[in-house]
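Q: What does the assembled structure look like for these inputs?
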Amino acid sequence: MDKIKMTTPLVEMDGDEMAAILWRETKEKLVLPFVDLKVDYYDLSIRNRDNTDDQVTIDSAEAARRHGVAVKCATITPNLERIREYNLKKMWKSPNATIRSALDGTVFRAPILIKGIEPYVKTWEKPITLARHAYGDLYRATEMKIDGPGKCELVFTAEDGTERRELIHNFTSPGVAQGIHNLDNSIRSFARCCMSYALDVKQDLIFSAKDTISKVYDRNFREIFKQVFMEEYMEQFRHAGLKYEYCLIDDAVSRVIKNSGGYVWACQNYDGDVMSDMLATAYGSAAMMTSVLVSPDGVYEYEAAHGTVRRHYYQYLEGSVASTNPLAIIMAWSGGLKKRGELDGNEALSAFGAALEEESIQTVESGIMTADLEKVAVNPSPHVVTGLQFIDIVQKRLAKRLD
Ligand code: NAD
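A:
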């Protein structure tokens, strides 16, 4: 068969460890044989970020903005241990945080639903998509260790020099303090992204925060969501028969365990980080979650929601079998190709992305899966394979289908 042609390149952001092994294998075996792939390639592996003083991450975000669609492999966010492990010049920022800030986007994480793989939460019948605000809060915090007694304050100095002060704490003994911020414009974009997405997937929307305790910060989020809804989306939601609701985060968490799913749950940055891991695990495995960063001006970055799977990488390097599940990585590629096809009016490319997704899902439905899914499989004796074997099997199915 002739390979499918592309007009606009896909921005490829390569990554680290086991995720990178599966990433390259997916590209080699599941994309390159079928697509005349055009990529604008950026190597975001920790060594190259260190060599380029992280310029490569900034360049990759600019390329995503230029071309509109990117696919990203999981990358190491350095901590002290990683600095020693890779002999790094410094503790570079999380590439995801850099890219999210550059694109001011919202991350939508949705489970990969497969017949025969049952979520741990038995009431869930429909997917729950988690929308995570991708700017500010803890991820842009300034922190201070307080060594002894003294007064710690929040000070805002306006451009005309006037000051406003709020006492954080009168320290009588050592402790810690933290300052976080967010921007009305970013919160507004977040609200719009969530509301457009909910309309797109025809699901109700919940936004949760803790405004009973955070009476200014979280209250501001709640008010902006309400205003955007009333002024821009209420009519469209009514027409579509959908609801928007604010919900205290505690209430949202207890509800999620009891209901049947089928809605978009918008969370602040930290809540979204934690809750998306909870949802992914409850749907069977960290590898059962797709993730896409959507910017308000329509830039899409597809990635797997899990990390670099370091533990498996060291097993792999030692020559033992690492049963890493490549599904979310395959879905990042297929999602990017489908969106590229859609934006370029390239139906063959979109259809290929959809075929790649279907063949991967049907492989699991036929009983062939990686070890992480064994515990949640309905079939009592699935055929367990490694991640690399799984990719080989999907390649054979795809080749047969597209022949
Ligand atoms: P991780 O997601 O890499 O792995 C945690 C555990 O989850 C693994 O030990 C494994 O048991 C399971 N797991 C994750 N993905 C799996 C898969 N595809 N198949 C089977 N099991 C899977 O998280 P971590 O160990 O906390 O982080 C490792 C590295 O990844 C860190 O350096 C961190 O900075 C980075 N990280 C990157 C991203 C990203 O780029 N999107 C996200 C999270 C963590």
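The two ends are 6 Å apart (CA to CA).
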